[in-house]
Amino acid sequence: MLNDVAIEIADEVVNDLNAQLFSIQFTAERHYLPKFELERNATPVVAVAPRDVSSEQQTRDTLEERWGLDIGVLARVKSADPELVDPLMALVTEIRGRYSIYRTIGGRGVSFEPASDVLYDRDWLEQKHQFAGVIQLSFQIERQLYG
Known about the structure:
- This protein has about 150 residues and is of the alpha+beta class.
- Helices cover about 30% and strands about 35% of the residues.
- The chain is built from three helices and six strands.
- The two termini are about 15 Å apart.
């Protein structure tokens, strides 16, 4: 079943994140709609969500699939004061760093592909007093078409 791969990959990333030591403690969870009522001064929410899939036939017998997922770091803050936001920026940078050098998870190849250079959503920070950083990853899987 097609969705099983998306769930497996997202769960592998959740387990990997939860096994690491980062500057801020959190428990990552898998979500489909990562929108939350965030409390001030609470532990940041780290949400892993499947994003997309694409495939390309490589040879007559093989198909390469690219499965995308997002890792969101979300937290409510009183203001954009650097002493409140700096630790959240550091966490996003640590997570990005983890996957920019990590090449496999659960036997699947990881491709770190930032969709943009934006580390956080400035509008959310200004208007909603919420920090929202997103790291985008993709995983490559080669499948035999006939087998």
